[in-house]
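Re: that chain you flagged

S.,

Sorry for the slow reply, it's been a week of failed gels. I finally had a moment to sit down with the sequence you sent. For the record, here it is as I used it:
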Amino acid sequence: MDRINLNGSTRFEVRLYLQIDQKTRLLLNLIKDSFGGNIGYRKTQNTYYYNSTSFGSAKKFIAYLDKYHLLSSKYLNYLKWRKSYILIQERKHLTPEGQYKIRKFKFKMNSYSKETLDLST
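Prediction finished late last night. Pasting the structure tokens below so you have them in one place:
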């Protein structure tokens, strides 16, 4: 997220990176046709992947996933990713508070605590 320029100053840079891995390419082709993006192949793992950093693709994914919810902990990651998208669209990523929130979302992705999952009930 942070990038150091040649003059030594630090610049905050945000990318909404989306990646989906699959053993076969069939589903990924459908996703690419519907949302845009790219498909690649990892020879070492014998897997295909879809990825995108496009805000246009992100907007389409959000519309789809708001209608057809993910299951499991993937949904929690999606909510953090979606909140980051909204902050960027509202240009709040240009403020220190917005940058802090996006960093917080990034570091909390894929880490699930009792509070995150609300296991107390």
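What I noticed first: The longest helix spans residues 74-89.

Talk soon,
D.
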